[in-house]
Write a structure and sequence with these properties.
With 276 residues, the chain is of the alpha+beta class. The radius of gyration is 18 Å and the shape is globular. Helix 1 packs parallel to helix 2. Strand 1 and strand 2 form a beta hairpin. It binds cytidine-5'-monophosphate. Cytidine-5'-monophosphate binds next to strand 2 and helix 5.
């Protein structure tokens, strides 16, 4: 059995530059990954089988056609695989939450199947499948700190800040990425600056925060709450939301804020982890 981690993705910054004729948006984003996420296990089997467990399994069990199964179908079609697979998804990330859960699951499925069938992870066909599955799937396939351009699929790896404590908070609502992009005000706020990761992120923004907050005002409550936490900096929404994050000076401060969230807002999902 092959097991692959599906790490949560963060957009430390997300600049929306233009709306394209195909309905997508040109982005400049800083992708980073954390030491927390889903896990995908694959094995060869006589008949296809898919199972999901974990904290957020209920959100997927009725979904006949999820990104894991789409990734497996595309992989088998492209690489001419006639064998069946048993796939297990351990779902620890909230769905439709701006931290790439479905994209990370699809990417982990591709990595696991590539290992199982001896396909090199730099095979261009694997990256094309990822690109076809969604804008964030190539970034999740790489799972390294990177600048993303185009729809988010043009990646330039950069030095990360591994070990930086980060608190993830989701207020328990799912938001539609497409709708939030459609409500972007169309004003180009400028390019990402250049420099070290955290400095660039501090000098940047998430252009999807205003439309996301307009649809789900609780996202503003999460940001305001994070701003009261001692030791928190770079407080921001990830992707199209609703998950927000803060970096912390120390893991003790990050863990204390996580504990505080569970007491003050028991309905919120809160995880203290670190950048990888
Ligand atoms: O690529 P993906 O299917 O993950 O994107 C979901 C939706 O988000 C798209 O249908 C599109 O409406 C929006 N999107 C966008 N520009 C991007 C990425 C996503 O408009 N760069």
């Amino acid at each position: 059995m092959i097991v692959e981690q599906a790490r949560a993705k963060l957009n430390l910054a997300l600049h929306v530059r233009t709306r394209r004729a195909d309905g997508y948006h040109e982005l400049e984003t800083l992708f980073a990954f954390v030491d927390h996420g889903d896990a995908v296990s694959v094995n060869l089997s006589d008949a296809p089988a898919f199972a999901v467990s974990g904290d957020f399994a209920d959100a997927l069990v009725d979904e006949a056609d999820n990104l894991v199964l789409r990734a497996e179908r595309a992989f088998c079609a492209v690489f001419g695989i006639a064998q069946s697979h048993t796939i297990h998804l351990e779902k620890q990330l909230p769905v439709a939450s701006g931290i790439g859960g479905g994209s990370a699951d699809a990417a982990a499925t591709l990595r696991a199947l590539a290992r199982l069938h001896g396909i090199a992870t730099d095979d261009a066909r694997l990256w094309q499948i990822a690109d076809d599955l969604g804008s964030d799937v190539p970034a999740c396939l790489a799972s390294v700190t990177a600048i993303g351009k185009g729809r988010g699929e043009k990646l330039q790896p950069i030095a990360g800040a591994p070990g930086t404590p980060v608190l993830l908070i989701n207020p328990g609502i799912a938001v539609s990425t497409g709708e939030i992009f459609r409500r972007w005000d169309g004003k180009d706020g400028g390019a990402l600056p250049s420099g070290p990761l955290i400095e660039v992120a501090m000098a940047s923004r998430n252009d999807l925060y205003p439309p996301a907050k307009a649809i789900a005002p609780v996202i503003g409550d999460v940001i305001a709450w994070l701003e009261t936490m001692p030791g928190a900096y770079l407080i921001r929404m990830s992707g199209s939301g609703a998950t927000c994050f803060a970096l912390f000076d120390t893991m003790a401060a990050c863990a204390a804020a996580c504990e505080c969230a569970s007491v003050e807002h028991p309905g919120w999902w809160a995880v203290a982890t670190e950048l990888v």
